[in-house]
Amino acid sequence: SNRVTANEFGYFAGLTYRGVPGLLLGGSLRSGHELESAAVEENLDFRSYDRTSALVKFVAEDAAGSTWRLGLLHQNADVLSDINSKLGVGRFASTTALEGDDSYTMDLINLEYGFGSPGDWIDAGVLRAYYETAEVSQQSLDERGLARTPVSIDRFFSFDQEIQGFELNLQKAQRGLHSAHQFAFGLEYRARETIEFRDGLAKIGRAHV
Q1: Which residues contact 42 (CB under 8 A, 6 or more apart)?
Q2: Quick check: 95 and 88 in contact, CB under 8 A?
Q3: Which of 60, 188, 184 is nearest to 122 (CA)?
Q4: Contacts of 118 (CB under 8 A, 6+ apart)
């Protein structure tokens, strides 16, 4: 059976103030694990995880009637896994342990400025800037204790990304006696930097079983 039983605990908290200025606060926490279905005599695979997130949004208007918006978002997750159902089968015939440790973190900040009104030089305009970072790391252990030459293989992978940019969108309507025209203009700039790293270590000899 491939079915799993998931036990999860979740918590969410939020606070909202509607008005000018406006404020939204939110956060969540989820923690749980997954086991093989009760139909299986023995629980072979195990997977546990923790996920958290936090959100802040703020909205305000200035004296000119323009709107400012600020948003902050944070997310992170950690997952531990211990796979046993595949041990001794197929390409894992000599494998005696498969374990993983994965983590993910993301942070985002964006600032938005909305301006213009019908009849002005710009009917509606939005200027938005943002900055985002993301980090992913994966660690795994592959022990092959039944191989002709026992070996323990540790693998590591990391992925770091940084994104920043801005957007500008403008709208203007022109109306004549017998026609109407809607003009739109957009400009976007984005810079992205990505760093990947892979590493591995093999220990020859008696693996831990």
Answers
A1: 36
A2: yes
A3: 184
A4: 173
Q: Is 207 exposed, middle or buried (0-12, 13-18, 19+ CB in 10 A)?
A: buried
Tokens representing 168 are 């500008």
Strand, coil or helix: 89: coil
> Residue 17: helix, strand or coil by DSSP?
strand
Q: What is the pTM of this model?
A: 0.77
Q: What does the chain come to in residues? A: 209
Three-point CA angle 152, 155, 157, nearest 5°: 175
pLDDT, one tens digit for every residue, the chain (209 residues)? 344 444 555 555 555 655 567 888 888 888 887 655 454 556 677 888 889 999 999 998 888 888 999 999 999 999 998 888 778 777 778 888 888 999 999 999 999 999 988 888 889 999 999 999 999 999 998 888 888 888 888 999 999 999 999 999 999 988 777 778 888 999 999 999 999 999 988 888 754 44
